[in-house]
Design goal:
The protein is mostly helical. It has nine helices and no strands. The protein has one domain: Histone Acetyltransferase, Chain A.
Length: 208
């Protein structure tokens, strides 16, 4: 039982350690969104002819949000139509569960040499922050998906450990009851033997 519990704890510790590596990426994504304000998004979406790099950023976000076809600037503007709601959608974006197909569509974009915060800053501060968000949320997801099997193994091991400990508790209780009964029988046997010995001693005294 202790071996099972130890294995469960070891697996859980390994999962937690791996998951810690994902925290900086998620923090970076959160900070990127927090650096943006409604005014910055408003300015970005108001551009009539945005730089090509800015279009790459909004294309990546549209893809992550599930749009695999319409990556035009008008559609990006529509996505940012309500800047406050747009920013909130990035803050609450589920980085744990990004479809592999969407990640595959984004891969060629984030692999481009110019798809980085420093380059985007030359074009638009809002695009730079959004670029950071895209790269960070994808990196977080990559780490999380590597850790997920470990977490599932940890949960399964912990469940098994708890089940075995519960079974052990039942067995120990049964043993306790049996030991209690055996001790009671031993006590009665000893009392009977003492009583018999007293009768024998008394008979010997009368005979002498």
């Amino acid at each position: 039982m202790n071996i099972i519990a130890a294995a469960a704890n070891a697996t859980k510790a390994a999962a937690n350690k791996e998951l810690e590596a994902a925290i900086p990426a998620m923090k970076k994504a959160e900070e990127a969104v927090n650096c943006l304000d409604v005014k910055a998004v408003q300015e970005l979406k108001s551009l009539q002819n945005p730089p090509a790099d800015c279009l790459l950023v909004t294309k990546a976000i549209l893809i992550l949000k599930g749009d695999r076809k319409n990556h035009t600037w008008p559609n990006a503007q529509k996505m940012m139509n309500n800047p406050k709601a747009f920013l909130e959608s990035l803050k609450t974006f589920d980085g744990n569960n990004i479809d592999e197909k969407l990640l595959g569509d984004c891969a060629p974009i984030i692999a481009l040499e110019g798809f980085n915060t420093a380059n985007m800053m030359k074009k638009s501060s809002a695009a730079a922050s959004l670029c950071t968000w895209v790269c960070s949320i994808i990196e977080y997801n990559r780490i999380y998906k590597n850790v997920k099997p470990l977490m599932e193994s940890s949960e399964a091991a912990e469940k098994l450990s708890n089940e075995k400990l519960a079974e052990l508790a039942i067995v120990l209780e049964k043993v306790r009851v049996i030991v209690e009964k055996v001790n009671e029988l031993k006590k009665k046997l000893q009392e009977a033997q003492d009583e018999k010995q007293a009768v024998v001693d008394n008979a010997n005294n009368l005979a002498s």
